[in-house]
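ok so i was messing around last nite and threw this chain in just to see what happens. nothing serious, just curious
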Amino acid sequence: MSNWGKKLRATLTGWRRETGGLAAMEFALVLPVMVIFYFGSVEITQLLTIDRKVTKAASSVADLVAQSTALTTAEINDLFQATTSILAPYPQANLQITLTSVVADASNNTTVAWSDAFNAAPRGVGSTVTLPNGLTQPNGSVIMVEVSYTYTSVVGQFVTGGVTMDDTFYLAPRDSAQVQRL
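result:
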């Protein structure tokens, strides 16, 4: 082996034995991945929490309305305010709720009997509503609650913008054929 080859071999062997900066270099390579995983898990946790709260809000409003025989404007406003507390601590400005009483005629054609909304436009009285098959009976009614929430995270607003989660619940009135709007 030439003198040059011996020097190269000695240098490479010395580098292999030198581990002083190895931990720092590994940490520098792993740190960005760890930060991405951390913020990603926080974001996914927030999204799952809000999705669960949206579902809970929709089911709670539908359940409370289905237990009533008639509702006043004050009672509906109380329902909407209670729903905003379900979504706390997230801002209520991003929450939209549409509460609709849907009635079916003798041919089971469904239309809106009345509708109220929070941070959204209510459905027009008499407008046609398409419901899942088998949900109504002729001359029956159903309460339909639509809840939507747009979540925008600190990190996500720069990457993806807001994420909208929505849920719709349908329940038949329990104590009357139709919930009346007073």
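not much to say yet. Strands lie at 70-71, 95-104, 110-118, 141-151, 163-171, 180-181.
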